[in-house]
Amino acid sequence: MPVGILRVCLVVITAIVNHPLLFPKENGTVPENTEEIIQKMKEREESLRLEQLRLEQEIAEQEAAQKALEKAAEVVEETKEEKVRWDMWTALSMVIFLLIEVWRQDFQEGNWQDTGGEEDDMAVLGKAFKGLVFPDKAVLASFYEKRILGTTGDMARMREMVEGFADDLLEALRSVCNRDADMEVEDCMGVGSMYENWRVRKPFVCDLIVPFAPPEPYCFRSQIWCSGDSFPPDEQGYGTIKVCRADEDVTGCICDKTKLGEDMLCLLHSQANTTRPSSEMEDLLCFKNTQYLDADQVMKWFQIAVTKAWNRISHKYEFDLSFSLLDSPGALKIKFRSGKSIAFNLTPVVQYENSDVYFISHFPRSDLAADLPSSTHWFLTFAVYERRFIQLVSKTLPANACHVSCLQILSFLHGKQCSLTGPSGLTNYHLKTVMLHLLQARPSQDWAPEKLEARLQDMLKFLEKCLHEKKLYHFFIGNGKVPAELGFPIIFQRAEPLNLFRPFVLRRDIYRKTVDTFHEMLRNTSALINEYTVRIPLAHTNGIHKESL
């Protein structure tokens, strides 16, 4: 019962509270507020719709801009690819053009003699001179005995006399030099044809090289073209020599190889250490304001020192000594009272590291040789190793082998032809290089004395081939087959081969003159040899086979 009464009371109270007339002011505005809210919701919905449209428009614009950028990037990439393809085709076209031009020049050079006559139709030995009879074994043997051996018998006495005098002269040179300031001169060494026993043309000239070193505390540090740094083609075969203090480390710092800025300082080498008075470096025979040894300064110093040395010992000898050639600073001549004379070359050199390769201050020039890049560039000579190689190979050849005889005959023929038609680009060094290559290529038994004729023809064919191709490689540089017994520096064996005939590519006038002289020598071979040969009975020659070129 009480619960039912409570429920009735709650219903009555709720009805009274929710009656619309109980609060007339508050409840009277409900319809108006509802319409306002609805209006605001509509306005809000419109603004949101407009905002959505704006955002959609911005997104569309951004997507359009992104697509434009992507398209532009694709266009740029395609342009780059087209440019790369164009550059590649341009480079390839240039290479093809250069190859065609080189081929055209070689073709012209190989056929420029076509207008000269029927004999000059071909440039390869065996075709251009087909039909020429080559002197046979008997004629060559007679020629060699009469012309070669008959005129070279006194070379040993001449070498002994020149070496003895040179030793005395250098000893006097050491005595007149200041041991604390001047270069230190070592003993001389004989090189070249006189000491390899194949010199045939008079006057006989001994070639002596004189190694020298700087006074303490200085030393020489050399750099060659194949040491890793790039050298221009015209500087291949050369090197530079830097004068440094013995305690100076020039290998671990690049401050002397690059230009540092004005506000940069090498922490290893201060300005006081790297800069020396120019007078001090000039006293060390360096090029002006550098540390590089100057070949011209060295030759001037050496000439003055030799003159002083001769003045000290001249009273001991009954002859005069003088410098014989202005263009050969080391050329000396001994003049006897009888009118006879002896010529020899005394040339200062610098040893390359601990090898028998030397930087030579002056090298005999030829029409083919290019001018030195500068007086700080020194040519490298391998003459000591060449002499050793010939001696080493000679031990494995048959008795009285014909390799030296072939070189002597070829040198004689070339010298005689040059005396008739003028000098050419070929030198005796080229002829010796041909012999060295064939010595390495052919087996030992092929150099037996009875094969003189065949080996001489081989040398002529090899030389003709080299002239035709304008390629005669230096025997040691780039040759990985040099005998290990020689102890030859590996850096030169791994270097790129050095073409001794490279100047022929640049000097076409000298090349044509050289080829002309060589062809003329081949035509005149029989006449030149027969001129110095004792007549041989016809019955003796009929049994000997004649080989023709």
From TrEMBL:
Membrane topology: Single-pass type I membrane protein
Keywords annotated in UniProt: Cell membrane, Coiled coil, Glycoprotein, Membrane, Nucleus, Signal, Transmembrane, Transmembrane helix
Localization terms from the record: Cell membrane; Nucleus outer membrane
GO MF terms held by the record: protein kinase inhibitor activity
Main location group: membrane
Family to which the UniProt record says this protein belongs: Belongs to the ITPRIP family.
PANTHER family reported for this sequence: CELL FATE DETERMINING PROTEIN MAB21-RELATED, INOSITOL 1,4,5-TRISPHOSPHATE RECEPTOR-INTERACTING PROTEIN
UniProt function note: Enhances Ca(2+)-mediated inhibition of inositol 1,4,5-triphosphate receptor (ITPR) Ca(2+) release.
Protein name: Inositol 1,4,5-trisphosphate receptor-interacting protein
Source species of the chain: Crotophaga sulcirostris (Groove-billed ani)
